[in-house]
Amino acid sequence: MSTIPDWITQLDTPYLLIDEAKLKSNISYLKQRVEARGSHLRPHLKTLRTLEAAEYLLSNKDSPATVSTLAEAEAYARAGYTNLLYAVGIAPAKLKRVAALRQQGINLQILLDNMAQVQAVTQFANQFEQDFSVFIEIDSDDHRGGIKPQDPQVVTLAKELGPHFTGLMTHAGGSYACNTATALRAFAEQECNAVRQAEKQLNDAGINSCVTSVGSTPTAHFGEEFSDISEVRAGVYTTFDLVMKNIGVCDFSDIAMSVVTTIIGHNKEKNWLLTDSGWMALSRDRGTASQDNDYAYGQVCKTDGTFLDGLCVNSTSQEHGVIELGDGYHPEDFPVGQQLRILPNHACATAAMHPVYHVLMSDRSHNTWQRIIGW
Ligand SMILES: Cc1ncc(COP(=O)(O)O)c(C=O)c1O
Predict the structure, then answer these.
(1) N or C: lower Cβ tally within 10 Å for the chain?
(2) Angle at 296 between CA 293 and CA 299, to 5 degrees
């Protein structure tokens, strides 16, 4: 491991640290991978939610991007981005904000999966002479929303949407339960097949213009063929996290996000370290609890990134973390004031706890990025 610049240990903790070199490498790997398999990426901006990260993810202001809130769409639109998919089912009351962005020339696309939403869209469109661009969500794995690919509702909704219909979107969130390359490849194929099947229904019904959008970080990394798919979405691949490591999508060394914390005390009877990073800094996400390797509230590393085998943040309260020292570790090796780095279970959740990120640039200088907050 390389020595670290002084500023890393001089900031007040806890703080979120992003490693720019790893971020860049994660971003370029997936872009090339998807393009080599015949499609293109529509990166999901929701993990880091900063204008700075968007500059790494999008080659120009018209590049396709995905957002998970209208607050993101509005912030990216203000910064000049024009091609945004809001990939959470639309609440009718939010159509006003969607229309306001579309009237500014932003191609903000929306998502839905039921007739009540379709009617809200068409009524708004007719009343205000507003055009929309709408994806129908397809359920490729039974994990959340969407219409099953063989369900005739796909055609019914597309017809009802008329000129507002744009395409079919699915997100194989169920792929997070996989942990072998074979299972991940099969899941990616299942995700693509779902939109292929739904698209065939549309074609048979005479609807021939249909964009297809698939993706999650695991399926984008394991899909073998995307040439008949218009676009692939992924988000958490930018920084990765311990959940993705357990799935087999990345290694520890690819994780570009950590929380820097300070040791504030010891419980010598119990052989515990106490730190100043509780769930307010790490999040309450316990995504690895159901996986083969459980890292509790995060994997502990030295400040230079050296992995401390077997050390996790075992429990948290609001502003305290407890690290139980196992065999081979001694409290005197971890004095009060020493800093550590914690790799997150779920990068999107951990980043959400931090309004500002500190970035270790490739030239080892220090940058700060502001998170876009709210909905
Ligand atoms: C609709 C949609 N597309 C894409 C993604 C990105 O997936 P990942 O977080 O695996 O990168 C998500 C994540 O929640 C999502 O909800």
Answers:
(1) C
(2) 80
